[in-house]
Design brief:
The complex is a heterodimer of chains A (654) and B (332).
Chain A (H helix, E strand, L loop, with lengths): L1 H16 L7 E11 L4 E12 L4 E5 L6 H9 L7 E9 L7 E3 L8 H6 L4 E4 L13 H12 L4 H14 L5 H5 L8 H13 L5 E5 L7 H18 L2 E6 L2 H7 L2 E6 L2 E7 H6 L4 H9 L21 H11 L4 H4 L6 E10 L4 H5 L12 E9 L3 E5 L6 H8 L7 E6 L6 E2 L5 H10 E4 L13 H11 L5 H14 L16 H13 L5 E5 L7 H18 L2 E6 L2 H7 L2 E6 L2 E7 H6 L4 H8 L37 E5 L5 E5 L4 H5 L1
Parallel strand pairs in A: 3-8, 3-9, 6-7, 7-8, 13-18, 13-19, 16-17, 17-18
Antiparallel strand pairs in A: 1-2, 1-4, 4-5, 9-10, 11-12, 11-14, 14-15, 19-20, 20-22, 21-22
Chain B lengths: L1 H9 L1 H17 L5 H11 L6 H10 L6 H13 L5 E2 L4 E2 H36 L4 H15 L2 H16 L18 H38 L2 H8 L4 H7 L1 H22 L2 H6 L5 H10 L3 H29 L1 H5 L6
Classes of the chains: A alpha/beta (654), B mainly alpha (332).
C-alpha cells in the first residue's frame, strides 16, 4: 500500500515540479531524524511540496505525522539535535539564482535570521504561551520591525497600530500597551497574527492556528487569515489536522502520514477525487452533518466490541438484585432542576464588603431530564458551564441551588443530598469518562489495578471473580489480557481512552457522563472511540450525558441536544431539530461556524468578518431580556428555547 | 499600584509589633536577668560584688518594674534610636555595635555581588549547554561547593595560607585600624582582607544559585514564546537575555527577602573561625550572657530586615512582573 502511495505522490510531484519558476517555497526530499538512546526516529522520510505565491497550501496530517517538524525545519527552528537533509528553496528576487536554499544556511546565522520574521512569518497553536507575559503586546510586535527595518520609534508604533487594526482591534492604541494575559485566547491569536505579519512576509507558516480556539472564534480567525492573505497577497502554509478547516480555506492540499506525503494537489481534486486509501479512510472517519440515523463512521482501524465478554463482565459486576428492578423503571433516569453555581474569586471570598458587581454565575438555573437509554448531548463553548454541570452531577462541586434526582427504578435518590450507603450506591451508578486520557489514568498503577479498583472499593465479588471481570472488560474493548500487567504509558491515546471507558463500565453504571471524550484524540481514533461508545450503549442500554464543543460529534452521538451559553441552556431539542431548524441565535451562530470537510458547504465568511455576529447585542429582542424575564418556551416536539416569557413563537421561529 | 505600595507598607506595622512582643518575652523567658548571672559569675570567681551599684543599675534600667512597662520602655527607646545599654560591655548598644554593623553590611553586600557575578554567567552557560562536559564539570564543582561547610573551607584556607605563604588570613583589617576613624589606609586594609571571607562565604551560595538559575532557565528555554522570538529573526543571545532570563529573574527578586537577614546573622561560624569583626559572633555572645538589650536589639534588627526584605521584593516584583501588577487582586 505504501508503495503505491509513493508512486502516486511522485507522479503528482513531478507534475508540480514543472512549474518551478513560480513557486514561492519548494521543499525537496527533506528528511529529518531525531537520535534516541536506541537508534533514531525518522520524523520526515523524504518530503517534497511547494507553496505558490499568494495561495493557501494546507499541510494535513494526524499527530506524529511530522507536519509541525516540517514547519519548524523550513524556518531552521528544529531542535539542534535533529539531523536534517534535503533542500528548502525560497524565492528571493535579490539572490543571483532567484532562490535561497534555507537548510544550507548556518544555524541561527545572519542570513537565516534575516529571512525569519521578514520573509517568512510564523504563528503557533497556543496563543497563551506564544507571547512573553512580561513584555507588552506592542513591544513584542515591533520587535520584528526593529530587527529587520530600521525605523523610528514613532513609525514603529504607527505601523504596529495599523497592523493591530487590520487584524480587527478597534482600539489598537490601547492594545499596544497591554500585556498578553489581559486578552482572551482569540484576541491573543489576532495579536499573534499581527506580530507575524508586521514586516509583510511573503509566506506565513501557521501551525494549527485555530486548534486551541472555540469553533466560533476559529471561524473568525480563519476569516481573518483569508482576508489578510488576499489583501497582502501572501502565501500561507497552513498546518492542521482538521479537514474541515482545509476544505474551507485552502487552495492546495498536501497530506502527510508517518513522515511521507500521501497525496497532494488542488483542494478540488483532493476532496472530490481522493486517490490514496489513507485519505479516503480519513474522510470516512470524520463525523459530518446529515448522516442518517443508522450511518456508522468507518474508523481506519475498527474495534469490535466483544459482546459475550462484555455481558460476562457486566454480569459479574452487577449486584444480584438489579435485574429484577429494570422492569418498573421510570422513563426519566436523571432529572436536573434549576441548578445554579457561582464561583467566588479569591478576592471576593476574602472581601469584607460585598463586591459591587456580582460575579457571573458559571451555571445559572439549568434544568433538563435525561431519559433512560438515551444520549443527551450538551454543547457549548469553553467557559459556558458545561463541565461545571458534569462536576455537580458527580458531586465534585456543590451547587448553590437546585436539585438532581436519580431514579433507576429502585426509588428516587437526591444526588445532592445522598449520604452513607445511598451515596455509595449512587457512586456506582454514575460514572465518568474524561477528556484527557493521559492524565486521567494513574501512571503508577497497572491497567489491571486501574480496572479492578472500582470493584475493590465497592467489594464486588471475590478477588478471582474480579480478575475475571477485568479480563472480560479488556476483551470487550479490544485489548488482550496481556494489557492487565502493563502501565498506561505503554498505550496510545486511543487505547488509553478505551481503558478509561472500561473503567467507567466496570461497575455496570446506569449513567455515564462523557466530558469531551474524543477532543484530545486524532480524527481516525476519534471515530473508533465514538463507535465503541455507541456499541456499548446499544448492547448495555446505557444512558449518556455527552459533553462536547464539537457539534458534528454530538450530531453523531446524541438523541437530544442541549445548547448551553453563559451558564444557561438556551435551546434543547431532538437532534434533527437542533441541526436543521435551530431557533436561538446562538445555536444558529454555533452551527454556522462549523467548518465542514465538504466543498459544497463552505463557511459564510461574511458572517464572521466582524466579531459582532457572535455577541448577544445583535440578537432579536426576545433573546436579550433580563434573566428574570426569560423562560424556556415550548415549540412542540420536545423543542424548548430560552426567550422572553411573552415572546411570540411564530416570530421566534422566523 | 501606589495604593498597593502604601497598604503593603502599612501592613508591616502590626507584623513588627507582634515580632517585638515575641522577641521581648522570649528574651525574658530564662529565669533571672543579666545582673543575677553577673553576680553569680563574680561569686564563682571568688570576688565580691558591689550590690549597691547593681541595685542602682537595676533601678535605672527599670528591672524593678513589671515586664509590660519594661517592654514599652524598650520599644519606645528603639523608636527614637536608643537601643538600650549593654551590661556586659558597660556601653550603650549603639556604641557596642558601632563599626561592626556597617562592616557586616559591607561584607554581605560584596558577598552577594560576588555570588551574582559568578552565578549568572555559569548558570546561563550550564542551562544553554545542558549535558555538555562544561555543564557536568561546573555541576561537579558546584556540588562540592554546596557540600563543604563554610567554616571547614575557612579552616582549610587558613591552614594552607599559613603553610604556603606564612600569612594569617583572619580578620577584616589589620588590627591597628580597629576602632580607628575611617581613613584611606584603613579602607585599603579592609579591601585587602575582605576577599577571603567573601570567597569562603560566597562559595555555597554561588553553587546553590547556579543550580537554581539553571533549573529555572531550563524550564523557560523550551517555552513557546522563545520559539516565537526566534521566528522573528532575533539573535539567539538577545532572545535568551530578553525573554527566558527575564522570566527567571523573578526568583532572584523574591530571594531578597531572605538575603537581608542572612546578611546580619549569616556565616557566624565562619566569622568566628576567621575572627571577623562582624555582628554574628557578637549576637551569639549576647544571647549566651543574657545581655538582653544587645540581644533584643539584634533580634529586632533581624526581624526588621526580614520584613523590609520581603517588602522590597514584593514591590520590586509588582514593578517587574505585570502579571502581579495587573492580575486579579492588586488592581482593585
Amino acid at each position: 500500500m505504501i508503495q503505491t502511495a509513493e508512486e502516486n505522490g511522485s507522479v503528482r510531484m513531478t507534475g508540480q515540479l514543472l512549474g518551478t519558476s513560480t513557486d514561492l517555497l519548494r521543499v525537496e526530499d527533506v528528511k529529518v531524524s531525531f537520535p534516541l538512546a536506541t537508534g533514531h526516529v525518522d520524523a520526515l522520510k523524504g518530503v517534497g511540496l511547494r507553496v505558490l505565491p499568494g495561495k493557501i497550501t494546507a499541510l494535513v496530517g494526524e499527530s506524529g505525522s511530522g507536519k509541525s517538524v516540517l514547519g519548524q525545519t523550513i524556518m531552521g527552528l528544529q531542535p539542534d539535535y535533529a539531523r536534517v537533509s534535503g533542500k528548502v528553496l525560497l524565492a528571493d528576487p535579490s539572490a543571483p539564482s532567484g532562490t535561497v536554499e534555507l537548510l544550507g544556511l548556518p544555524r541561527d546565522g545572519r542570513q537565516i535570521r534575516a529571512i525569519r520574521g521578514s520573509k517568512i512569518g510564523m504563528i503557533f497553536q497556543e496563543p497563551m504561551t506564544s507571547f512573553s507575559a512580561l513584555h507588552t503586546i506592542g513591544n513584542q510586535i515591533t520587535e520584528a520591525l526593529r530587527i529587520h527595518e530600521p525605523v523610528s520609534a514613532k513609525e514603529q508604533r504607527e505601523r504596529a497600530e495599523d497592523m493591530l487594526s487590520l487584524v480587527g482591534f478597534t482600539k489598537p492604541g490601547k492594545v499596544f500597551d497591554m500585556y498578553p494575559f489581559e486578552l482572551s485566547g482569540g484576541m491573543r491569536q489576532r495579536a499573534m497574527i499581527a506580530m507575524a505579519l508586521i514586516c509583510s512576509p511573503s509566506l506565513l507558516i501557521a501551525d494549527e492556528p485555530t486548534t486551541a480556539l472555540d469553533v466560533t472564534i476559529q471561524a473568525q480567525i480563519l476569516t481573518l487569515l483569508r482576508d489578510l492573505q488576499q489583501r497582502m497577497n501572501m502565501a500561507i502554509l497552513l498546518i492542521t489536522h482538521d479537514l474541515g478547516v482545509v476544505a474551507n480555506v485552502s487552495d492546495e492540499v498536501v497530506v502527510l502520514y508517518q513522515g511521507r506525503i500521501m497525496e497532494s494537489g488542488p483542494v478540488e481534486d483532493i476532496f472530490r477525487r481522493p486517490q490514496h486509501p489513507y485519505l479516503k479512510g480519513l474522510m470516512a472517519a470524520i463525523p459530518h452533518f446529515g448522516m442518517a440515523q443508522g450511518d456508522r463512521l468507518r474508523p481506519l482501524r475498527d474495534i469490535k466490541v466483544d459482546h459475550d465478554k462484555l455481558m460476562t463482565a457486566i454480569g459479574n459486576a452487577k449486584p444480584m438484585d438489579t435485574a429484577s428492578r429494570q422492569h418498573e423503571a421510570p422513563e426519566v433516569l436523571l432529572s436536573v432542576r434549576n441548578l445554579s453555581k457561582t464561583y467566588q474569586t479569591r478576592d471576593q471570598a476574602w472581601a469584607f464588603r460585598k463586591p459591587s458587581a456580582a460575579p457571573a454565575p458559571a451555571v445559572d438555573g439549568v434544568s433538563f431530564d435525561i431519559r433512560r437509554g438515551e444520549c443527551l448531548g450538551l454543547v457549548g463553548e469553553s467557559g459556558c458551564g458545561k463541565t461545571t454541570v458534569s462536576k455537580i452531577l458527580m458531586r465534585a462541586v456543590t451547587p448553590d441551588a437546585g436539585s438532581v434526582i436519580y431514579d433507576d427504578g429502585s426509588g428516587p435518590v437526591d444526588v445532592l443530598e445522598a449520604k452513607g450507603d445511598d451515596l455509595q450506591r449512587l457512586r456506582t451508578q454514575i460514572q465518568m469518562v474524561f477528556q484527557d486520557p493521559v492524565s486521567s489514568l494513574s501512571p503508577r498503577m497497572t491497567v489491571g489495578n486501574i480496572l479492578s479498583e472500582p470493584l475493590d472499593i465497592h467489594r464486588r465479588g471475590t478477588p478471582a471473580q474480579r480478575r475475571d471481570t477485568v479480563d472480560a472488560l479488556l476483551g470487550a474493548i479490544g485489548l488482550g489480557q496481556s494489557a492487565r500487567h502493563r502501565y498506561p504509558h505503554s498505550f496510545s491515546g486511543g487505547q488509553r481512552q478505551r481503558i478509561g471507558i472500561a473503567r467507567a463500565l466496570a461497575l455496570a453504571p446506569g449513567l455515564i457522563v462523557c466530558d469531551e471524550p474524543v477532543s484530545a484524540l486524532d480524527v481516525s481514533v476519534q471515530a473508533q472511540i465514538l463507535n465503541l461508545l455507541k456499541d456499548l450503549q446499544k448492547d448495555l442500554g446505557l444512558t449518556y450525558l455527552f459533553i462536547s464543543h464539537n457539534l458534528a460529534v454530538v450530531d453523531y452521538m446524541a438523541d437530544r441536544v442541549a445548547v448551553m451559553w453563559a451558564g444557561r441552556i438556551v435551546e434543547i431539542a431532538p437532534r434533527e431539530t437542533i441541526m436543521t431548524a435551530p431557533v436561538h441565535p446562538y445555536t444558529k451562530a454555533l452551527l454556522a461556524a462549523v467548518p465542514y470537510p465538504d466543498l459544497e458547504r463552505r463557511l459564510d465568511f461574511a458572517t464572521f468578518a466582524g466579531s459582532s455576529a457572535l455577541t448577544s447585542v445583535n440578537w432579536a429582542a426576545a433573546f436579550r431580556a433580563e434573566a428574570s424575564q426569560m423562560a424556556p418556551l415550548d415549540l412542540g416536539n420536545g423543542h424548548f428555547v430560552l426567550a422572553h416569557k411573552s415572546a411570540d413563537m411564530a416570530e421566534l421561529k422566523s | 499600584m501606589f495604593r498597593y505600595v502604601i497598604l503593603r507598607s502599612l501592613a508591616m506595622i502590626p507584623t513588627l509589633f507582634l515580632i517585638s512582643v515575641l522577641v521581648f518575652f522570649i528574651i525574658e523567658l530564662p529565669p533571672g536577668d543579666y545582673f543575677e548571672s553577673y553576680v553569680s559569675e563574680l561569686r564563682a570567681l571568688g570576688e565580691s560584688a558591689d550590690l549597691a551599684e547593681i541595685d542602682m543599675l537595676r533601678e535605672r534600667y527599670g528591672f524593678d518594674q513589671p515586664q509590660v512597662v519594661r517592654y514599652f520602655w524598650w520599644v519606645g527607646g528603639m523608636l527614637h534610636g536608643d537601643f538600650g545599654y549593654s551590661f556586659e560591655y558597660r556601653l550603650p548598644v549603639n556604641e557596642v555595635v558601632g563599626d561592626r554593623l556597617w562592616l557586616t553590611v559591607l561584607l554581605s553586600t560584596v558577598t552577594i555581588l560576588f555570588t551574582w557575578i559568578i552565578a549568572f554567567p555559569i548558570g546561563i552557560y550550564s542551562a544553554t549547554h545542558k549535558y555538555s562536559w562544561g555543564d557536568y564539570g561546573l555541576t561537579f564543582l558546584g556540588l562540592i561547593g554546596i557540600a563543604v561547610p563554610n567554616f571547614m573551607l575557612a579552616l582549610v584556607m587558613m591552614y594552607f595560607a599559613n603553610i604556603w605563604f606564612g600569612v594569617s588570613i583572619g580578620n577584616l583589617m589589620d588590627q591597628q585600624f580597629l576602632n580607628e576613624p575611617m581613613s584611606w589606609a584603613k579602607l585599603s586594609s579592609i579591601l585587602s582582607h575582605i576577599w577571603i571571607p567573601v570567597v569562603i562565604i560566597g562559595t555555597a551560595g554561588t553553587a546553590a544559585m547556579v543550580r537554581r538559575l539553571r533549573a529555572n532557565l531550563l524550564d523557560e528555554l523550551h517555552k513557546q514564546y522563545v520559539t516565537t522570538a526566534r521566528a522573528k529573526g532575533l539573535h539567539p543571545t538577545k532572545v535568551l537575555l530578553k525573554y527566558p532570563l527575564r522570566m527567571a529573574l523573578n526568583f532572584f527578586i523574591s530571594d531578597i527577602g531572605s538575603i537581608l537577614p542572612a546578611m546580619i546573622s549569616g556565616a557566624e561560624v565562619t566569622a568566628i573561625v576567621l575572627s571577623l569583626e562582624t555582628t554574628g559572633p557578637m549576637l551569639i555572645r549576647a544571647l549566651q550572657s543574657q545581655d538582653m538589650y544587645l540581644a533584643g536589639s539584634f533580634l529586632m534588627f533581624l526581624a526588621f530586615l526580614t520584613v523590609i526584605g520581603v517588602l522590597i521584593s514584593d514591590i520590586a516584583l509588582t514593578f517587574l512582573d505585570p502579571r502581579i501588577r495587573l492580575g486579579k487582586g492588586s488592581s482593585k
